[in-house]
Amino acid sequence: MENCIFCKIVAGEIPSSKVYEDEDVLAFLDISQATPGHTLVIPKEHVRNVLDMSADTAQSLFARVPKIARGLQKATGADGMNIINNNEEAAGQTVFHAHIHLLPRYADGDELDIRFTAHEPDFPALAALAQSISQEVQA
Ligand code: 5GP
Ligand code: ZN
C-alpha cells in the first residue's frame, strides 16, 4: 500500500534489520528498542490490524511467532518475553500495517513496565458481558 512504511520495508524501499523472512511473513528489529531485541513480526500483505485480518493471514502470521520468539530468546539470552499487538489508536497503534511486538524481558531489569490493574470481580456483570460477546463472535 502506498505511503505505508511497513509495505516499504517489505518492498526493500527502506532499510530494516531483518531477522526472519519467508513468502508471507517478515520480522525485523523495531527501530526504537523498547527492550534489547524488540522485534516486529508482520504479514507481507498489507492489512490494517488483527480486527481487519482474514483467518488465512492470521494463520500464517501467528504460526511463525513461536519459532521467531525462540530464536530471539536464544540470541538475546532473555529470561522471558511479552508478545503484544496494538489495534487502533485507542490501543496505541501508530503504524497501520498489522504487526506483533516481541519484547524480550530481562530478569535483572529492563525499562518496560506492563501491568494490569487488579479489580474485584463482579460475577453477574461478567456473565452478561460474556453472553453478549459470545453472541457477536458467533454471529
Ligand atoms: P505500534 O505503536 O503501531 O504498535 O508500533 C509501531 C512500531 O513501529 C513502533 O514501536 C515504532 O518504533 C516502530 N517503527 C516505526 N517506524 C519504523 C521504521 O521505519 N522502522 C522500524 N524498524 N520500526 C519502525
Ligand atoms: Zn502496509
Automatic annotation (TrEMBL):
InterPro entries for the chain: HINT, Histidine_triad_HIT, HIT-like, HIT-like_sf
EC nos: 2.1.1.-
Domain of life, source organism: Bacteria
Residue ranges occupied by any HIT domain in the UniProt entry: 5-113
Keywords: Methyltransferase, Transferase
GO BP: any one term: methylation
Keyword Methyltransferase: yes
Keyword Methyltransferase: yes
GO molecular function, one term: methyltransferase activity
Pfam families found in the cross-reference section: HIT (PF01230)
Motif Histidine triad motif mapped to chain: 97-101
Name listed for the protein in its UniProt record: HIT family protein
